[in-house]
Amino acid sequence: MDVIVLIARILFVAIFLASGIGHLKATEAMAGYAQYKKVPAPKLSVIVSGVLMVVGALSVLLGAWGDLGSLLLLVAILPIPFLMHRYWAEEGEARATEQVQFNKTVSLVGGALALFALFVMVPELSLTVTDPLFTL
Question: What is the pTM of this model?
Answer without folding.
Answer: 0.94
